[in-house]
Every structure is written in C-alpha cells, then in structure tokens.
Amino acid sequence: MSEKPVEYSGPERVFSGVQPSGSLHLGNYLGALKKFVDLQDAHDCVYCIVDLHAVTVWQDPKELAKQTRHIAAAFLAAGVDPDKAIIYPQAQVRAHSELAWYFNCVARIGWLNRMTQFKDKAGKNSEKMSVGLYDYPVLQAADILAFKATHVPVGEDQKQHLELSRDIAAKFNNDFDAPGFFPLPEPLIKGPGARVMSLKDGSSKMSKSDPSDLSRINLTDEADKIAKKIRKAKTDPEPIPAEMDGLEGRPEVANLVGIYAALSGQSDQDVLNTYAGEGFGVFKPALADLCVEKIAPITESMNRYLADPAEIDRILAKGAEAAAAIADPIVSDVRDIMGFWKA
Ligand code: AMP
Ligand code: TRP
Questions:
Q1: Per the domain annotation, does 3 fall within a domain?
Q2: Residue 248 and residue 288 in one domain
Q3: Pair (189, 277) in one structural domain
Q4: What is the pLDDT of residues 12-25, one digit of tens each?
Q5: Atom 6 of ligand 2 has which residue's CA nearest to it?
Q6: Do 173 and 242 share a structural domain?
Q7: Which of 35, 48, 56, 207 to mutate to test the pocket of ligand 2 (most atoms within 8 A of CB)?
Q8: What are phi and psi of 25, to 5 degrees?
Q9: Residue of the nearest CA to atom 8 in ligand 2?
Q10: pLDDT at res. 191
Q11: Are residues 41 and 140 in the same domain?
Q12: CA-CA distance, 319 to 86, in Å (whole number)?
C-alpha cells in the first residue's frame, strides 16, 4: 500500500464488494475475503454486499435478502470484524445509485464496449441482456469512489474494472476542473490466491457459475465433500516437481500447489520443497486435510451466524448507517462540483 495515488491527498481507505448470488467458493475466499481480514487491522475498510450488481441478472425476490445475509455470514465467519470494518448491503446506501448516474454521464460507451466480463457473461446474447449488466462497471466505479477509496482488494478478474474506475475518476477530476477530488484507486491483487482455477480445468477460473460442482470448493462444503473434490481434481501422472519451471504446461498441478501455498501462507516454491518427487496419492490427501482445516471452521461459524439472522441484520443496519455517513457528503460534493441547483 505504498504507492500514493497522484494528486489526491485525502486519507487512504479500502473498499471492496462481493455479489450476493450463489454460494462463495475457495477462489472468493483466497482472492477476496482473506485479504479483507488481513487489511482490517491497519486500514479504514468498507466491505459491501453488492446486491445492486447482483440484480443485473435475474434474482428471485424471495431469495435476495437471504443471499445477502449469507454473504454477510461468510464475511463474519472468515474473520471480518464489524467493530473494525464496515459491512453493509449496497442497496441500503443511496449514494451508490446516485453517483452511478453521474458517472454514466462521464464514462464513454467505447470504454464499456471494451469490458471483457460483459462479453463473457453476455456471450452471443448481448442484445437480450439487461442494460444494468452492461453498465455494471460504472456502478462498480461509483461504489469505490463514493468512499474515495484508494485501495481495492479483489481477484485478478477485476483488474479491467479497476482500470475503468481510474479512468472515470481521472475524467471527472479533469472535466470538472476538480484536480485530486477523486483518488485513482489502486487494485490490491497480488499475492497467492489472486486467481484460483477450476479443479477440473486449469485454464478456467474457479467460478460459482460453473455447472460442475466438482470444479469448486464451496465455503459450505462438508469435510468429506472437500476431500472427495480434491481426490477427483484433474492432475497428471508426473510427480510434483522440485522447481517452479516444472509446473509449466501443467496448469492443474500449478493450481493445486498454488492453493496449498495460499492456504498455508507459504510460497509455491516452499510447497515444492516439501513435496518434490511425491505423487498425487500423497499430495492430494495433504491438500485435502489443509483445506478442511482452514475451511471447516469458517463453515461452522457461518452456520452459527446464519442461525441468528437478527444479529446479522443488526450488523448490516449499523454498517449501512456508517457507510452512508461517509458516502453521502462525498456525493453531495459531487452535486456541487457538477453545478446542480440546490436550496
Ligand atoms: P464475485 O463472487 O464475482 O462477486 O467475486 C467476489 C470476489 O472474489 C472478487 O474480488 C473476485 O475477484 C474474487 N474472485 C472470484 N473468483 C475468484 C477466483 N477464482 N480466484 C480468485 N479470486 C476470485
Ligand atoms: N465486480 C465485483 C465482482 O464481481 C464485485 C464488486 C462490485 C466490487 N463493486 C465493487 C469489487 C467494488 C470491488 C470494488 O467480484
């Protein structure tokens, strides 16, 4: 967190968001939640459950609030402490939608046309997708900048959206002659676990939308299910190599080694040092034990939180109030800068 954004001289703040759609998996944990926890002691952190992003694709109204509590429970179970960080649902804080509209008038259509996540999600059906799905990255920029966040912990798949947020911030500052009003937010992507791949295909990322449940480890999976999924994970007949270049061309093996490293807090090379020459008959059970050791307490704690939805609701309501207290004055300044009428 050393590189200071150009011109902006306000305080540092961390912001990130997770969608309340589908259950969380090991990629979400290593790419996002674990970083959220690591940052909360030394930084001012805001973690948002981005329900407005979720509804860019169909969400059953009977399930949405439940899904939001589920993500809140995952945050808390992973170790996010509501006394240290703000946790709240996006739709409770009006600043997100309002700033997104102003940013719609700053961002250019050409910029959005380049977003690969939209192309991936829409596929050949882009004409039938919601306008919201297309506009998703603008709302994401609004999320971050409504808090003047300077640092954004995310997985690697969010890199392009972060670049767009920087472009929007820079264009706003420039167009409205407000140098340094918005920071240019820095992504915090590096580190083990930034890109956890599918257990079935080392070339696609672990994802909640993968039709095969065997491709991912969910934070809600029981110990024997985790062990089974790792046993069935794709590998090859070669043993674990001694050096990193022995992982080249073996994406599935590299992924399992990376997961082991991220969960145990070691480097990939440390893991190779321990397991060089061993086959998967040895490595997979060790990895399964490690996964269970790290994930089972989170699953148990999530279940405890989910058994007490009133406590979750209390935390989210308090978080929403604290979040609005930061974001509302910033969006009010935006209105002034843009020159809207006021009483
Ligand atoms: P999402 O579930 O898409 O809202 O993602 C929530 C967070 O998890 C974002 O920061 C993503 O970048 C991160 N994430 C999602 N999938 C992975 C993955 N396979 N590896 C690492 N990070 C991921
Ligand atoms: N687009 C992010 C994802 O799919 C979620 C998100 C929404 C987000 N708003 C954000 C992440 C702001 C970081 C900052 O994972």
A1: no
A2: yes
A3: no
A4: 999 999 999 888 99
A5: 17
A6: no
A7: 48
A8: -125, 180
A9: 17
A10: 81
A11: yes
A12: 5
Q: Is 67 in the pocket of ligand 1 (CB under 6 A)?
A: no
How many residues appear in the chain? Answer: 343
Phi, psi of 147 (to 5 degrees): -110, 5
Asked if residue 117 and residue 166 are part of one domain, the reply reads yes
Rounded Cα distance between 130 and 90, Å, is: 19
Query: Taking all residues of the chain, what is their mean pLDDT, rounded to a whole number?
Result: 95
Q: What does the angle CA 195 – CA 196 – CA 200 come to, to the nearest 5 degrees?
A: 135
Residue 4 within a domain: no
Neighbours of 63 (CB within 10 A): 12
Residues belonging to the active site: 121, 205, 208
Q: Give long-range contacts, CB 8 A cutoff, 24+ apart: 138-141.
A: 138/100, 138/103, 138/104, 138/107, 138/112, 138/164, 138/168, 139/52, 139/53, 139/96, 139/97, 139/100, 140/17, 140/50, 140/53, 140/164, 140/165, 141/100, 141/103, 141/107, 141/165, 141/168, 141/169
Domain membership flag for residue 208:
no
Same domain? For 183 and 225 the reply is: no
List, in sequence order, the alpha helices (H) in the chain: 26-28, 34-40, 51-54, 61-78, 95-104, 109-113, 116-122, 131-145, 159-175, 223-231, 251-264, 268-275, 280-306, 309-338
Q: Tell how far CA 259 is from the center of its chain.
A: 17
Residue numbers of the domain that contains 289? 213-303
Q: Whose CA is nearest to atom 15 of ligand 1?
A: 28
Q: Is the CB of 78 under 6 A from ligand 1?
A: no
187 and 61 together in one domain? yes
Q: How far is CA 248 from the centre of its chain?
A: 27
CATH code for position 140: 3.40.50.620
Tens-place pLDDT, residues 144-189? 999 999 999 999 999 999 999 999 999 999 999 999 999 999 999 9
> 54 and 182 in one domain?
yes
Task: Let me know if 223 is exposed, middle or buried by CB neighbors in 10 A (0-12, 13-18, 19+).
Answer: middle
In the chain, how many domains are there? 2
61-to-56, 65, 101, 259 alpha-carbon distances in Å: 13, 8, 24, 35
